[in-house]
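Appendix C: a fully annotated inverse folding record. The material below is reproduced so that readers can follow the format used throughout the book. The structure is listed first as tokens, followed by the designed sequence.
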């Protein structure tokens, strides 16, 4: 693992100092809105420290794996971007563009100039038809917690993702609607060892929906998904085609149970068939239950429990069944302070990998837990200061799959 010498403190903090200096001279009152609040410009500077950057196993020797006696590293992120929200009669155009520059103190092989952009046209035709057409593109670092063959990867891997979306809804009567969605997801890995996970996933969903007088929704969603993975996976030296077709039917309810709460529930049957190695085909029930509640004006609680299949995996060619619970609490003790706590507990079972099904590598299951605390303070109307603390833990059935990690970061954001 290539390492660079630590940068000089003055050079390392230049961007953060510039933002902080600008914040000191901001006016106490909000500045004039750009284009009547249709355009937002923002810059962001963050500093973070991760005590197990590559998510090495607890028993792993970092000197052997990374060529360094330490698992930790500090890094800084500089970002600048804009958001546009422009109404055009009954139409609306929404766009976002952001450039990210991430630099590491020690493991500079992970340095990246990333980007994120998206565009959406919210269209409406008459009083009964409306929808959305959109495109998005992202270049970012793939998760360093990925396990391939039982070993966390120290290979830099940058993931380029592109998405296309077409949505349309038609009111057939005051109570009945028909909705449709066509979506394409394409992601490409930069590292050669992860090329078998490159994928293009096309999905089509149709929903007949009944809307009550109070605006609650009851419906059925039918889906057809085609996944194409152009690079075969080598299993014991034999190339395996991982293309698949997925079909599902799911009933759903979205119901406001009171002025301060909302219930969502989904349940259905999902089947995925792979082109080769049919023993790994999946056919089972999936479901998700969510509840939102505001017990007080400045407190919101969200909870969700689910058993479902992950949409796509960055570096795993198979199918992953996820069962878990998430809890989120958001509290505003004062007008300019927000506190958010997010807890997650999830079990992940890897079911669709041909190497596992054929007994070449052992079965793989994980239990993942995380806690994230975010405190945001706005001392000035255009300035936000953030503190983020995160703790992660994974227990795995595969060798060297366990890890613990703690991350702490601070950030400064300016918005015009």
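Designed amino acids, in order:
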């Amino acid at each position: 693992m290539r390492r660079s010498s630590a940068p000089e403190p003055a050079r390392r903090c230049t961007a953060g100092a510039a933002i902080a200096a600008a914040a000191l001279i901001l006016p106490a009152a909000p500045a004039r809105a750009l284009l009547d609040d249709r355009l937002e410009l923002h810059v962001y500077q963050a500093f973070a420290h991760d005590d197990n950057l590559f998510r090495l196993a607890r028993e792993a020797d970092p000197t052997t794996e990374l060529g360094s006696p330490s698992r930790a590293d500090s890094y800084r992120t500089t970002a600048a971007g804009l958001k546009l929200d422009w109404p055009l009669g009954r139409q609306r155009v929404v766009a976002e563009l952001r450039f990210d520059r991430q630099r590491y103190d020690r493991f500079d092989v992970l340095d990246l100039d990333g980007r994120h952009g998206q565009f959406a046209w919210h269209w409406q035709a008459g009083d009964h038809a409306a929808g959305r057409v959109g495109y998005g593109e992202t270049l970012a670092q793939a998760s360093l917690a990925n396990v391939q063959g039982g070993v966390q990867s120290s290979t830099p891997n940058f993931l380029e993702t592109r998405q296309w979306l077409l949505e349309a809804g038609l009111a057939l009567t005051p109570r009945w609607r028909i909705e449709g969605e066509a979506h394409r997801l394409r992601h490409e890995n930069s590292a050669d060892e992860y090329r078998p996970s490159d994928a293009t996933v096309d999905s089509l969903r149709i929903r007949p929906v009944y809307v009550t007088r109070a605006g609650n929704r009851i419906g059925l969603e039918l889906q057809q998904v085609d996944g194409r993975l152009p690079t075969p996976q080598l299993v014991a030296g034999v190339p395996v085609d991982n293309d698949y077709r997925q079909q599902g039917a799911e009933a759903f309810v979205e119901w406001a149970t009171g002025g301060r709460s909302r219930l969502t529930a989904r349940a259905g049957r999902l089947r995925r068939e792979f082109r080769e190695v049919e023993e790994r085909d999946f056919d089972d029930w999936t479901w998700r239950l969510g509840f939102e509640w505001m017990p007080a004006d400045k407190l919101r609680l969200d909870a969700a429990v689910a058993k479902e299949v992950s949409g796509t995996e960055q570096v795993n060619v198979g199918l992953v069944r996820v069962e878990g619970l998430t809890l989120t609490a958001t509290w505003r003790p004062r007008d300019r302070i927000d506190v958010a706590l997010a807890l997650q507990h999830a079990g992940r079972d890897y079911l669709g990998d041909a190497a596992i099904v054929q007994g070449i590598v052992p079965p793989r299951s994980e239990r993942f837990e995380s806690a994230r605390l975010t405190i945001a303070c706005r001392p000035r109307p255009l300035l936000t200061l953030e503190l983020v603390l995160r703790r992660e833990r994974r227990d795995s059935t595969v060798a060297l799959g366990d890890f613990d990690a703690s991350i702490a970061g601070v950030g400064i954001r300016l918005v015009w």
